Each structure stands twice: as C-alpha cells, then as structure tokens.
Amino acid sequence: MRVVLTGGGTGGHIYPALAIARQVTDAEPGSELLYIGSNRGLERELAAKEQIPFEAIEISGFRRSLSWENVRTILRFVRGVRRSKQLLRRFQPDIVVGTGGYVCGPVVYAAVKLGIPTVLHEQNVIPGLTNAFLSRYADLVAVSFPESSNNFPRAKRVLYTGNPRASQVVHADGARGLESLGMRLAADEKLVIVMGGSRGAKAINDSMIEMAPLIAAQPSGLKFVFITGQPYFESTMSKIREQLDAWPEALKVVPYVHNMPEVLAAASLIVSRSGASSLAEITALGLPSILIPSPNVTNNHQEANARWLEREGAAKVILERDLDGRTLYDAVCRIADDAIRFEHMSRMSKKLGKPDAAEAIYEAMCGLIRGQNF
C-alpha cells in the first residue's frame, strides 16, 4: 500500500496519523509512506522519528475575525493545493489520510481533485475547522466519539472507529513502565498518574504542589506519579520541597515520560487534560479518570470530550476554575477508596474504549482502495 499522511500543528493531530502508519506497515510490510506537513508544527520531527519521508508545504489558518491575513491564507491555500498535487502525482498514493490541522486542507483537497481516495480522522467531539470544511469532499470521515457523527451533516460517510492512538497502549507492558520509573507497587496499592500534557499545565502543577503535603500525610495505599512538563519541572520541584519536611515515598515527580503507553499501562487512575489522544489511551486501558479540560482550546472541545466520558460514568470532570489541591486530592480518594465506584468507572471506561481503532481505520482504507461502496 502507498499512503500519504497529513495532519499537523500539535501532537493531537500527528500521533493518530503515525498510529495509522504503524498499523499499515504492520499489516503490509513493505508499504510506502509519505508525510506531508508544514515546517511550523511538530510533524517533521515526529515523522523523522518514525523514519517516514517528509515533504513540507506552506499554509496558515484562518483568523476568526475579519483580517487581511485571511486573504493571504487563501493565497497560501491555493499555492498549497498546487504543491500538493505535484507531490501526489510524484508519489502516486493509493490513498490519502488526513488527521486535521491546517496543513491537512490543501493536501486532502488536492487528492480529491486528483481522484485519489481520501479518509479524514477527527479526534474530538467537536470537529476542527479544517476537517469540517473537508468532510463534504472526503470519501470517509472516521470519528473518535459516536457523538461526532452528527457534526458532519454533509459527509458522504461517517464511521465510528475510535482514535488510533488507543491501539498503541493495549499491548504495552506496565511492569516495564514501573521499572522505568524506579517504582514498585504492592498488591493492594494503586498508582495515580497526574499529567498536564507533553509540556505540562500550570493549573494542574499548582494543584499538585498543594497536594504534596496531603500525600505525605496519607495512609499507605496510593502512590502518585506527577509529570510536570519540562518547562515547569525545576520550579515545581522547588515549590513542593518548600511544602515538605521529608519527601514522601508515595510521590514521584518527573519532567517528562518517553514511554507513556507503558507507564499508563501500570496506572490505576489518571488525572489529565482531556485531549482526544489521552482519552483514547485511558479508555483503551479501562482506567477511571479525573479530567481537567484546558479552557484555552478552540471551541472548548476538551470540555466536550470530558463531559462525554463523565456522562457515561467513566470520569469525573473538574473545571480549571474549580481546581485546587484539596479538591483534586479528595476527588482521587473518593474514587480510589470506593471499590464499587472504582470498579464501575473502570468498566464504563473499558466499554468506551476502542483498542482496535487503528485496525478499523486500516480496514476502511483497504475497502476504499478496492472501490467498495460504503
């Protein structure tokens, strides 16, 4: 199979594309891949780590207010479509897969104009601007949440597949995750992972600083791994030390985790933002979660994601404006110490998970290439 992948800006768009790439090469060794992105996002770096050839186009996003910059964006889009057609004619893909972000627009649009089968993947409940625009042209829109289907009224076909990131965590080795952290868990202990995204989140960090004395005073039974994000690590460590007479064995603070699937596989409970990739991983593992949506995202989509899990009984949502150390600590304890609630949330989380998401998308791609009528 020859596949062009496109999607960029943040990891939330790029990691699903890379998960699809991995599924394709696992299913069909010898497949050829090309990633088309921009030089502004993380996609060049992340594609290189996966040894996927990369080509760049220049593109920018529309501003939501009237601006002359939008005229320049239209011109960049036209040039981006022209450049994308050149790349697609040269590579001759069987299919083009877009996972959102502005760079996805001209690439998928060019593929449609050239008659190449196209798949979009939408990670969030509320679709991004680019995927909403492209959905009327693409052959298939794959969605991570069943509620998303109603948000693509002009799509030819919408398929609920889940997020392909989920497929990467289900086979991860939790024992290796614990070993990488230098931790051991007794049979009756639960591991709580607290994270704010790859670069961290100040509000979550501040609440964890306030939580540290509560963790130090707690009875045994819970251990915490707190992932600060590299930019916040030194200052956060300093502030936590100021709160403590002695460092508690139950608390591990790290700036970043490179083997996140393995660490998540060792967890009992997750405290996290509610980005789509994180929720895919959490539900694939059947983990209860406390979700703190970022208020600084387009269309407030993280709260929409989080509320879906909460309605289904898999998560507790705490808005950032209501967050502090005591509130978060009490929420953790109420879930971890209540065996019936913990088991119910675990079961509902697992029910929502789509661990075969990458395979489902791959099978849909194969069907489109074979010309199957969905």
Automatic annotation (TrEMBL):
<keyword id="KW-0808">Transferase</keyword>
<feature type="domain" description="Glycosyl transferase family 28 C-terminal">
    <location>
        <begin position="192"/>
        <end position="360"/>
    </location>
</feature>
<keyword id="KW-0132">Cell division</keyword>
<dbReference type="GO" id="GO:0005975">
    <property type="term" value="P:carbohydrate metabolic process"/>
</dbReference>
<dbReference type="Pfam" id="PF04101">
    <property type="entry name" value="Glyco_tran_28_C"/>
</dbReference>
<comment type="similarity">
    <text>Belongs to the glycosyltransferase 28 family. MurG subfamily.</text>
</comment>
<dbReference type="GO" id="GO:0071555">
    <property type="term" value="P:cell wall organization"/>
</dbReference>
<keyword id="KW-0573">Peptidoglycan synthesis</keyword>
<comment type="pathway">
    <text>Cell wall biogenesis; peptidoglycan biosynthesis.</text>
</comment>
<feature type="domain" description="Glycosyltransferase family 28 N-terminal">
    <location>
        <begin position="3"/>
        <end position="142"/>
    </location>
</feature>
<dbReference type="Pfam" id="PF03033">
    <property type="entry name" value="Glyco_transf_28"/>
</dbReference>
<dbReference type="InterPro" id="IPR007235">
    <property type="entry name" value="Glyco_trans_28_C"/>
</dbReference>
<feature type="binding site">
    <location>
        <begin position="10"/>
        <end position="12"/>
    </location>
    <ligand>
        <name>UDP-N-acetyl-alpha-D-glucosamine</name>
    </ligand>
</feature>
<dbReference type="GO" id="GO:0050511">
    <property type="term" value="F:undecaprenyldiphospho-muramoylpentapeptide beta-N-acetylglucosaminyltransferase activity"/>
</dbReference>
<keyword id="KW-1003">Cell membrane</keyword>
<feature type="binding site">
    <location>
        <position position="124"/>
    </location>
    <ligand>
        <name>UDP-N-acetyl-alpha-D-glucosamine</name>
    </ligand>
</feature>
<dbReference type="InterPro" id="IPR006009">
    <property type="entry name" value="GlcNAc_MurG"/>
</dbReference>
<keyword id="KW-0472">Membrane</keyword>
<feature type="binding site">
    <location>
        <position position="198"/>
    </location>
    <ligand>
        <name>UDP-N-acetyl-alpha-D-glucosamine</name>
    </ligand>
</feature>
<feature type="binding site">
    <location>
        <position position="302"/>
    </location>
    <ligand>
        <name>UDP-N-acetyl-alpha-D-glucosamine</name>
    </ligand>
</feature>
<dbReference type="GO" id="GO:0009252">
    <property type="term" value="P:peptidoglycan biosynthetic process"/>
</dbReference>
<dbReference type="GO" id="GO:0008360">
    <property type="term" value="P:regulation of cell shape"/>
</dbReference>
<dbReference type="InterPro" id="IPR004276">
    <property type="entry name" value="GlycoTrans_28_N"/>
</dbReference>
<keyword id="KW-0328">Glycosyltransferase</keyword>
<comment type="function">
    <text>Cell wall formation. Catalyzes the transfer of a GlcNAc subunit on undecaprenyl-pyrophosphoryl-MurNAc-pentapeptide (lipid intermediate I) to form undecaprenyl-pyrophosphoryl-MurNAc-(pentapeptide)GlcNAc (lipid intermediate II).</text>
</comment>
<dbReference type="GO" id="GO:0051301">
    <property type="term" value="P:cell division"/>
</dbReference>
<dbReference type="GO" id="GO:0005886">
    <property type="term" value="C:plasma membrane"/>
</dbReference>
<keyword id="KW-0131">Cell cycle</keyword>
<keyword id="KW-0133">Cell shape</keyword>
<keyword id="KW-0961">Cell wall biogenesis/degradation</keyword>
<protein>
    <recommendedName>
        <fullName>UDP-N-acetylglucosamine--N-acetylmuramyl-(pentapeptide) pyrophosphoryl-undecaprenol N-acetylglucosamine transferase</fullName>
        <ecNumber>2.4.1.227</ecNumber>
    </recommendedName>
</protein>
